[in-house]
Design a protein that fits this description.
Its EC number is 1.3.5.2. Pathway: Pyrimidine metabolism; UMP biosynthesis via de novo pathway; orotate from (S)-dihydroorotate (quinone route): step 1/1. Its cofactor is FMN. The structure is a single chain. The protein has 495 residues and is of the alpha/beta class. Helices cover 44% and strands 9% of the residues. An eight-stranded parallel β-barrel has the order 3-4-5-6-7-8-9-10, surrounded by four helices. The chain has a two-stranded antiparallel sheet with strand order 1-2. Helix 12 links the parallel strand 8 and strand 9. Helix 9 packs parallel to helix 10, helix 11 (327-339) runs parallel beside helix 12 and helix 13 packs across helix 15 (466-480).
Length: 495
């Protein structure tokens, strides 16, 4: 009796155990408790068979890992230039997703990515025909990034690493300010922010840290390059660094704001820019008048020259002007530039005009600057006029001293139309036409008188992959027309 009860109890326990096991295990096991017990006793714990779906997952995971290992092994065998090209091309897959984000969020993410090194780094040398020397500094190429993208100098190293010949940070104001109310950026896919700044102190800390790192690298370097050779790069790293200075919106003494910027930031800059052309700071453009500009430039130059400088001397000083200027305004600016021996002009900022068909768009009523295709011809015409107004006097100065030359630079952020523009220095009405940007467009500006070219809109829309593309196309344009260097192409359409 006790034996039968014990046997029944054992069978019941085994049946319950089997019901709790996976289906394949129940199929594998015998319904007989003694058989199961015998199997368990003879061969140890039963090994369950995995479901068919699990096998597929294991195979897929293994295949993926194998492909990654094989891809990594293959990548290690290709040359650095090819691998670098792959990395830049890969950004084309990511960049379109930024269009689905709020413009300022997309801008913030882009700056953060560059600051943290999440962008490709250019390892390939630039075409030799693109190299040029300006202000005694060697530019590996004439394509730079305009002010407004990295306002607070957060990502200088990462942006220069993308292959830009130079990067301009700012505009930097003495006191932190948030800029104009949002929304201040508008996307119009079929039609082509005041300075928000963390302030001088925050920017100076970042630039000081970068400058110190650069000096440390130079000291520890074992390079045997000649000291007489003009090296690529400047104070921030492999490229040239420009610092764009602005005034606070509520400031009553504009000159004092710019002077403070010079005293604090000029030691870290390869060149300085006085921005007097933003359409979003009240009264700023009035400083473009002949008397006002002359007084301002004199004070800024005096502040710069009173500082102690090494063998390289003080950083060159440039002025950024607007496209909404009369012929007389342009003549006055040219006269001041030549009389005070300015080192350059940045032509141009955005326009407050609303030419057709932009004028018919509801957003045209928004205050602020217009950029894109409608401004392309306007800015090019201003560039040609300023080149003609300054070139003869500049050339005569070059005969005696290169320091007298007025070099004309073009700001491409106001000359390239794309789906949207990431610009945060004002309440901008962005009405830009959808338009491809190429090295041919940059070449047009150089032939119109530009020595260097700045990108903004094109970079925001096209991403890192656009940089090597523009440089390659620009080199082809120069060679196609029989020029041996960029110098020969500058102002070719004005001769």
């Amino acid at each position: 009796m006790a034996t039968r009860v014990a046997s029944k109890f054992m069978k019941e326990c085994l049946n319950r155990k089997l019901r709790s096991c996976p289906a394949p295990l129940r199929h594998y096991c015998s319904s007989s408790g003694t058989a199961v017990a015998a199997t368990a006793a003879s061969s140890g714990p039963a090994k369950p068979k995995f479901p068919h779906a699990s096998k597929k997952k294991v195979l897929l995971t293994g295949a993926t890992i194998g492909l990654l290992i094989a891809g990594g092994a293959y990548a290690s065998t290709v040359d650095e230039a090819t691998f670098c090209g792959w990395m830049f091309s890969a950004t084309k897959l990511v960049n379109p997703f930024f269009a689905y984000l709020d413009p300022e969020v997309a801008h913030r993410l882009a700056v953060t990515a560059a600051a943290r090194g999440w962008v490709p780094k250019e390892k390939r040398p630039d075409p030799s025909i693109l190299g040029l020397e300006v202000w005694g500094r060697r530019f590996s190429n004439p394509i730079g990034l305009a002010a407004g993208f990295d306002k607070n100098a957060e990502a200088v190293e990462g942006l220069l690493g993308l292959g830009f010949g130079f990067v301009e940070v700012g505009s930097v104001t003495p006191v932190p300010q948030e800029g104009n109310p949002k929304p201040r950026i508008f996307r119009l896919p079929k039609e082509g922010c005041g300075f928000n700044s963390e302030g001088i102190v925050a920017v100076a800390k970042r630039l000081g840290a970068q400058h110190g790192k650069r000096k440390l690298d130079e000291t520890s370097s074992t390079s045997s390059s000649s000291t007489e050779e003009v090296k690529h790069g400047g104070k921030a790293g492999p490229g040239i660094l420009g610092v764009n200075l602005g005034k606070n919106k509520t400031s009553e003494d504009a000159a004092a704001d710019y002077v403070q910027g010079v005293h604090t930031l000029s030691q870290y800059a390869d060149y300085l820019v006085i921005n007097i052309s933003s359409p979003n700071t009240p009264g700023l453009r009035q400083l473009q008048g002949r008397k006002q500009l002359k007084d301002l430039v004199k004070k800024v130059q005096a502040a710069r020259d009173e500082m102690q400088w090494g063998e390289e001397g003080p950083p060159p000083l440039l002025v950024k002007i607007a496209p909404d200027l009369s012929r007389q305004d342009l003549e006055d600016i040219a006269a001041v530039a030549l009389a005070l021996r300015l080192d350059g002009l940045i032509i141009t900022n955005t326009t407050v005009s609303r030419p057709d068909p932009v004028s018919n768009n509801p957003v045209a009523e928004e205050p602020g600057g217009l950029s894109g295709k409608p401004l392309f011809n306007l800015s090019t015409n201003i560039l040609k006029e300023m080149y003609v107004l300054t070139k003869w006097a500049a050339l005569s100065c070059l005969v005696s001293s290169a320091a007298c030359a007025v070099l004309i630079l073009v700001n491409y952020c106001s000359a390239c139309g794309h789906n949207y523009i990431l610009r945060c220095n004002g309440t901008y009405s962005y009405l830009s036409f959808e338009q491809k940007f190429s090295g041919e467009d940059a070449y047009m500006k150089i032939r119109a008188g530009a020595t260097l070219v700045q990108l903004y809109t094109a970079f925001a829309y096209g991403g890192p992959a656009l940089i090597p593309q523009i440089k390659a196309e620009l080199a082809n344009c120069i060679e196609r027309d029989g020029f041996k260097s960029i110098y020969e192409a500058v102002g070719a359409d004005c001769r």
